[in-house]
Amino acid sequence: MEYVDHSFQVGNRAAERLSRVPAVLSRWSLEKKMVRILIAGVLGGAVYYVWGMMVWMVIPLHAPTVNQFPNEDAVIEVLTAQNLETGVYSAPGFADESDMSNPDSEFNKKHAKGPIFSVYYHADGSPPMPPMPTSMLLNGFLINFLAAAIAACLLSTVAGGCCGSYLNRVGFVTGLGVFVALIGHLSYWNWMYFPLDYTLGFVVDVVVGWSLAGLIMAAVVRPEACAAKGDSKDAAG
Predict the structure, then answer these.
(1) Residue 12 lies in a domain
(2) Domain count, the chain
(3) Strands (DSSP E) along the chain, which ranges?
(4) Which residues of 131-160 are buried (b: 16+ CB within 10 A; e: fewer)?
(5) Measuring CA to CA, which of 8, 53, 99, 171 is 20 to 30 A from 155?
C-alpha cells in the first residue's frame, strides 16, 4: 500500500490559500477607496450645489454685477428681428483672420471704436428662477457630483503623501478651486473683456465653494494608515 502524506497536502493547500490573502486584501482596500471617493463626490457635490444656490439667491455676490438694459424691450426687438438661432454672438464680427491682421479693416476700426460685446442667446423661453425646471436642477447636481468625484479621485492619490493631514487635504481641494477660477474665469476677463467685478464674483464663488466642499471631502478621503489607526483606536475604546 502506497503511503500518502496527507499533512503535506494540507500544508500546501493552506499555503496556497494564504498566498491569496494579499490579493484579497488589496481588492478590498481598492473597493473601500472607491466607496469613499463616491461618498466624497456625493457629499462634496451637495455642498457645492447648496453653496451655488445661496450665492445666487441669498448672498448678494453675483446679482450686483449683472446689469440691466435701460430699454430691454428695444434690445429684444432688435435681436428677435434678426431671427437668430440659439448660440453665442459677438460684435464686432470678422469674416476671417485677414480682417484681424489688417489694421484698415472694418473689424479693426469697429473694435478700436467700440462697443465690444458678446451675446449668449437662447431663442426659446424657459421658466424663470425660481422655480427652475427639474431637469436643470438634476443636471446641476450631476455636474457638481462629477466635479467633486474627480476632485476626490485626485485627492485620494495624494492623501498618503503630501496631503496626509486633514488641513492639507482641505487645502488641496481649495487649490483645485483656485485652478478652476484662474483658467475658467480670469481667462475670460483677460481675453473676452468680462468686467472685473463680475469676474471676481465668480472667483470668490468658486474658491469659497470648493473650500467648503473640501472640508467634507477631506474627512472622507483620508490615508489608509490614518483610517487603520482610527479603527484600532475605536476597537480599543
Answers:
(1) no
(2) 1
(3) 87-91, 117-121
(4) eeeeeeeeebbeebbebbbebbebbbeebe
(5) 53
146 in a domain, yes or no?
Answer: yes
Grid cell digits, residue 91: 460684435
Enumerate the H helices of 182-195 as residue ranges.
187-191
pLDDT tens digits, 162-177: 788 999 999 999 999 9
Q: How far apart are CA 80 and CA 232, in angstroms?
A: 68
Q: How far is CA 173 from CA 134, 181, 206, in A?
A: 29, 13, 11
Domain that holds residue 172: 33-68+129-236
Mapping DSSP onto H, E and C, the string for 219-231 reads: HHCCCHHHHHHHH
Residue 209 CA to residue 174 CA, distance in Å, equals 8
Long-range residue pairs from 67-76, CB within 8 A, at least 24 positions apart, any chain: none
Residue appearing with cell numbers 487635504:
169
Cα angle 45, 176, 136; round to 5: 35
Q: Read off the pTM.
A: 0.78
In a domain, 191, yes or no: yes
In 10 A of CB 213, how many CB atoms?
A: 31
Q: What is the pLDDT of residues 44-63, one digit of tens each?
A: 999 999 999 999 989 999 99
Residues 6+ apart with CB under 8 A from 154: 172, 176
Q: Residue 21: inside a domain, yes or no?
A: no
